[in-house]
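Q: My hope is that you can spare some time for a protein that puzzles me. Underneath my words sits a plain record pairing an amino acid chain with its backbone structure tokens. Those tokens are not coordinates but codes from a learned vocabulary of shapes. Thank you; the sequence and its tokens follow:
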Amino acid sequence: MDNMRPVVFFVITFVLLWLGVKLGSYLSRHLKEKINKEEKLVSLLGGALLTFFGLLVGFTFSMAVSRYDARVLLIVKEANAIGTTWLRTSSLEEPAKTQSQQLLKQYVPARIGFLSSGHDAKQLQDSYALTSDLQNRLWSVASAYAISHRDPITSLYIATLNDTIDVTEERRAALEDRIPSEAWGLLLFIGFAAMVIEGMNVSTQSSVLRILLPFVLAGAVAMTLDMDSPRYGLIRLTQGSMERVQQQITGNTP
């Protein structure tokens, strides 16, 4: 599911639910007498499954929204940490000040590229490697400077730089935190079962009516996956905070 595009998932879900309706219609024609005897039970079961399916979609969508909000907040958190680190480089003496500023000017584009690299495995690994290298170099400069400058100002800079480094792992973990595949499987299974029962209950031969419900439900499920897919889809994470920090760093000198 991590590499499933929302549009593809919509098509798969729609076809699966539509096949459920078709199967229900087939059973209705060939088992008409048995189904008529249990008409109330079949109707009750169909309503119960649809209700359960709706609850699962709502619960899954809530999970996706909470993850989306967490990712947005972490982008802001990282932007604030980098911005504070940049400002506090002004308290350092040369050559640590210039070295740190030059590294930070490379660091921000690397962090912006972390999200924009999508699911390209090579680009992601390159982003991880570049970020790790720049962090090590920033920390080496700071730790060497701290040996000869044991004062509160240096401690503040070290603490802020540490926050900047720590938040990168938080963002990576948040992007990897996806709704489990098992949850999607259960959702699709319940949806298919509900469509089978609905297919038994729908007596009309109108193809539009038979397609409408699977289409709507598939759209709701695909939108949930879209919300849970931070790297591509209709709903994207924006990096306005990081871009503003980049403008601050490239356009101003503290």
Notes: Residues 9-251 form one domain.
